[in-house]
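Sample entry (123 residues):
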Amino acid sequence: LGGVVKTIAEEDVFTSTAVYVRTAQTYLTRIDDEVVAIWQKCPHLGCRVSWCENSGQFECACHGSYFNRAGEYRSGPAPRGMDRFAVTVNEQGIVAVDTGVVTRGAPPGTETLDEPPRGERCI
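Predicted structure, serialized as tokens:
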């Protein structure tokens, strides 16, 4: 962590899912027509959080924290939502994630995305 990582084309980031980019240790998704990069690390104890396509949310298998597609806290022992990295899109339409610029996840109760779980959980 601590540098700019070129990832994928902006056109390959969608509002219905989250795309994992291993080189940046992040998930990319689109919220209100803006690409956001959500760090894979759970704010509880640092486990890697997984995206569950079935439920449409992030799920931490270590201790059972759940987060919506924006990385906002839903339930579990995590003290806050998932952290985010700064994002830019270059002239060629490639998303760059700056892993050195971290925005701390919002506190519980800050759920701005109105997307209830859409199916069964993965864990």
